[in-house]
Specification:
Blueprint: E1 2-5, H1 8-20, E2 26-29, E3 49-53, H2 58-72, E4 79-83, H3 92-99, H4 106-115, H5 138-149
Parallel strand pairs: 1-2, 1-3, 3-4
Amino acid sequence: MHIFVEGNSDKTFLSILLDYYNINATIETTDGKDNLKNLPKIKKYNNPVIIFDADNDYITSKNNIINQINSIDKNISPSIYLLPDNENIGTLENINNNNFKGVNPKSQLFAYLEVFGFKHINSSKKIDYKDIFNLNHEKVLKIVNFLKSVP
């Protein structure tokens, strides 16, 4: 599975989630919600997964993704998930507010991970993320179920 996300916060969060739930995937940042159209290599993935923020308008955000994909190739069929819960407006930070223990804004997430030595996700050290995050939160499990359902 190949996942495209907007930025580094999304990549960090999903890396932790994938590691914790033993889901095999590669994550790539697009450096913003309007940059999918600049990634023609997305065509090489059978079913790319796109996880972006819904921001202030769920429908507009989803249509933006679809339009960008169609501008590359109308035959690409991505699986799309819009944070925080694939139904409502919001962002990754809306999950953070309910999910991370003692960490709310994404800038604090990076600082927290760095200070406690958790920043290097792919290190040989096995990290028990449940000490940092509530990885069984309803909104997190919704993302996990989505990822497990992607062909």
